[in-house]
Amino acid sequence: xxxxxxxxxxxxxxxxxQDGLYRGGYPKPRNFRFLKRQxxxxxxxxxxxxxxxxxxxFCHANNITLLTIKVESPNENVTVTNKIASQCLALLTNPTxxxxxxxxxxxxxxxxxxxxxxRKLQLWRVASYQNxxxxxxLNGEIIPEESEFVDAYDGAGLLLSNPYSPWLWPGRLxxxxxxxxxxxxxxxxxxxxxxxHRMSTEICVADPISxxxxxxxxxxxxxxxxxxxxxxxxxxxxxESTGTELLAESLSDPxxxxxxxxxxxx
Length: 266
Fold this sequence. Notes:
Shape: globular
Order of helices and strands: EEHEHEHEHHHEEHHE
Radius of gyration: 22 Å
Oligomer: single chain
Helix content: 25-40%
Largest sheet: 6 strands, mixed
Distance between the termini: 41 Å
Number of strands: 8
Number of helices: 8
Structural class: alpha/beta
């Protein structure tokens, strides 16, 4: 008699949004084996209550960062704010958080609104992202408040990571690493979106060392260059570490009572 293998059960309304980005309902213990196969790095929860201890333990055991943004359950109204939408889009488009699973309680209205805002950022046509929304909507309709929310969303408060996920605007190349790939660096439908500044990466650290090693350059000079590169690498590492610590600090220490604070639990 063969051994019985536990089935792989995806969360309710599970779907791939982009490479390394998934959406769905609240993960149950029966979904954990499936989610483990996705090699998730981040789970972003848009829920009104505290996390289920089972999910917290699963994330801890699998080295998954569990982020929570408090969003009330919709009841014929929109409970997502512009600030929450911008917070979510900043996380979804940051490649350092991928693979990421985005969910609300049932994987429908709240998650659907965030994905519609993401599609607007990606320059999808209105009909296209509304049709996608309806695929996960039980009643098969978008209430006026939902469509009005997405129409009015202008990207205020959204600071994109630099670099951002390559699937965001495929085929579009910017003339400068610190500009979005649009005329004057301004998004055509979300004028308040901003891109984080990053230092130029034109200087390749490895090239001077390999060139010196291939040539008959004086060993003392080669050692001097190696010292400079080592110091630069150390400074870069400190900067990266500091940035990570600042992100962790900003995501933790939530202000009690606010509806749009991100909590980093794992």
